[in-house]
Amino acid sequence: MGGPNLEVFKFGMYILFPIGVMYYFGTNLDQRFTVPDFWPKEGQTHKIPFEKDEIKDEIERLKRRRLEGRDRRLRAEAMRREAEGTGDGMGEE
Predict the structure, then answer these.
(1) What is the pLDDT of residue 92?
(2) Cα distances (angstroms) measured from residue 84 to each of 16, 74, 75, 76, 80
(3) Chain-centre distance of CA 23, in angstroms?
(4) Which domain holds residue 74?
(5) Residues 51 and 70 in one domain
(6) Higher pLDDT among residues 2 and 60, named by residue
(7) Distance between CA 57 and CA 54 in Å, rounded?
(8) What are the tens digits of pLDDT across the range 60-85?
């Protein structure tokens, strides 16, 4: 099959490939490829509630937010129907 020449080639690739990558890119990869302020600060992220009262407050906040969105959606839908002049849309086909 390949014989000793294939083994020498594989050994050379195993040794020379990482050395070539390090030579090409260098050793200061942190300075060359980092994006400043990529990760958010602690005050900019969500705070996960762990206490029972905090969890209850968060559930209430999410419920209020969902109901406000539902009310806005229903109002917008009613205004759209009113603008089209179809009334409530029941029984009219």
Answers:
(1) 53
(2) 73, 15, 14, 12, 6
(3) 34
(4) 45-88
(5) yes
(6) 60
(7) 5
(8) 999 999 999 999 999 999 999 999 98
